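#onboarding

Welcome to the new folks! Below is a worked example of what a typical request in this channel looks like: someone posts a single protein sequence, and someone else replies with the predicted structure as tokens. Don't worry about understanding the tokens yet, we'll cover that in week two.

Example request:
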Amino acid sequence: MVQYMYEAEYDPPLTSDPVLREGDIRRVNPDGLAYTYARPHTCDSVGDYCRKKAICPHHTCTRKTCGFKCVDESCDDCDKVPGLPSGGANQLLVHAEMYGIGVKYGVHGLDKLAKEKFDKACHHYWNTLEFEEVAVYVCEHHLDGLREVLVATIAAHTKLIEKEKIEKLVRKNGRLAVDVLKKKAEDGW
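Example response:
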């Protein structure tokens, strides 16, 4: 948590160059202008000038780039899904614990970052023993925000229900079973 308080990040990072969210510590682009990744971006123009012209390291509003006419612009380079965080499947528990700390102590942003990392890690590590163990942890500790990710992951990979720990968890937790069925139906079976 200390690392998060200073860097708005904790290990393992999503990428080697973590993407900032609006309100995070400002960085400076190659033109020397501060940016915060506030996207989507719409030019806040006064004549031939945008007051929020540096939105990321790749885009600065100028006459040549956008003519100060951006409307709901995003950066293709910045919006790419970040790669797999380093650390392997054991990071699932780290993200779940960080989420719990963020919620318990009201650390604004930590819970959102942990949920984002948890979601990406579940996408990559859903077919591991660590996923089964963290699913039990999330349900036992009533981490409702992460529970949504579990529901989506189990619904997307229904063969998980054949795994002993997941089957036991779903049988024990009727609400989880119903939510997985609803999600599956919502997604069109």
